[in-house]
Write a structure and sequence with these properties.
about 425 residues; alpha/beta; 3 domains; 7 strands; elongated
Amino acid sequence: MIKFRTLSTNNMEENNLGLPKDFFKQFKSKEQFHEFFQEMFKQGVNEMLQGELDAHLGYEKHAPEGRNSGNSRNGTSSKKLKSESLGDLVLSIPRDRNSSFEPKLIPKHQRMSEQIEQSIIGMYSRGMSTRDIEDQIREVYGVDVSESTVSTVTNRIVDHIKEWQVRPLEPVYFTCWMDGIQFKIRHNGKVVNKCIYLVIGLKNDGLKDILGMWINETESASFWLSVLTDLKARGVEDILIACTDNLTGFTKAIAEVFPKTVTQLCVVHQIRNSCKYVSWKERKVFAADLKTIYGAVNRESALNALSDFGEKWGNKYGYAITSWENNWEALTSYFDFPLEIRKLIYTTNVIESLNSGIRKFTKSKSLFPDDQAALKAVYLSIMNIQKKWVLPIRDWGTIINQFNIIFENRCRL
């Protein structure tokens, strides 16, 4: 990246440049001085490039040592560089006959400064549209970038995504939260809803880590099976507790890949589903009665509360009682653990908070042109969000001891 510092015409005489004070009087405006400085800078860079070529060839221009050396100068080629402060600079890049010269000052294929590229990626990650990015870069740097340029810069993220998606993972995760987030994406000329699958893992240092993202047209237990298989292929040997929504077949899919894993269905999802069709007038009382179930001190008390709940509401909202009964084991797994772990696993709030953060960063993108655009946006959102995950979860010292006692040798401490 090229860095330089321009001078203000307001305090030129105060700078100890070794130049006569009246030197600057020749410039009638800042624009004239800017043009002069731009040309001076360009000449300086061109001379430095020639110096690089001298070092590469081992002799200076016209030096006798260059005769029969096997390589020589071969003119120059023009290259436009988008700089941070001076705008577009047309440089003369020297060449050698063997095409082996690769300048360090201006690397091959570099067309704009690293700072501008990072700015584009940063704005893209925060949900700005391509048009807004173009306008912002023009306003801040005075450089025109096209929509295709923005796409080219952000497409470099794809390689990072590929590396991130196949990176090796920890052998054991104490808890994994799993959920999907829906986006509208153009596919084969139509706008369809697609699901990006996300998994957060809790490591043995108490820090959370997003293990990956996968895209599919719908959220299904069969695709979750492929996600879990991918985690295993990347080195995950054991998940102690998995927290999920109550998607049909999800628990079975987990058991297929990680048979020892305890599955905890999200109680909050269950409450929402139970209250979905309850009349507004009765919802408050209905929800309060539900709390006697999931807020019980143990599984036996919860089962008694479910029985009472069924007697009161069964005739009117029998589907709610049936849903609790059918998912009872996975809904009440948290009763087998101490209070600190219960708070950690009875809901998928951890990953719902992640989804909320992703929505915040992508809210300006109501429709993605393709899968790759959606994955780029979600990946950059994830990278921004994970920067804040620098501390272990609350009460980790207590929780890790509890995990170690309950799961014994599986914790790999």
